[in-house]
Amino acid sequence: MDEKTLEEIQFHTETIESDENSPLHLIREKEMELSGQALAVKKQAEEIVAEARRKAVETVREAEAEGERLAAEREKTVLAEVQEEVARVAQQTEGEIEGLEATISERMDSAVEFVIGAVLQSGGR
Fold first, then answer.
1. Using one digit for the tens of pLDDT, what is the confidence trace for 16-39?
2. Element (H, E) at 92
3. Helices (H), 1-22
């Protein structure tokens, strides 16, 4: 048995053997009452701390879930922006290619004439 239990047994034994109105008895009775109140307050404090810990764990869990949700949303947004930019660059590049092909077609006759002239000129030397 622990010391507290032994004290309670001894107190009850003394109570039976002594006068209930003696100062010592009244002091011990008050001491036991205060001890009980202290234990009740301690238990209540432990319950409050345990509840606070549970709430803290839940808050962390909720914050992590919210962080993951926000990260996923941001990832989707950025991916959509990148895809739009890729499409814009591809369209712009396609337009540039079409312009270059048109220029090549326009200048093809001139290029052929230039090459033939250069060949004829070098052949005549």
1. 555 667 777 778 788 888 888 898
2. helix 23-123
3. 3-17
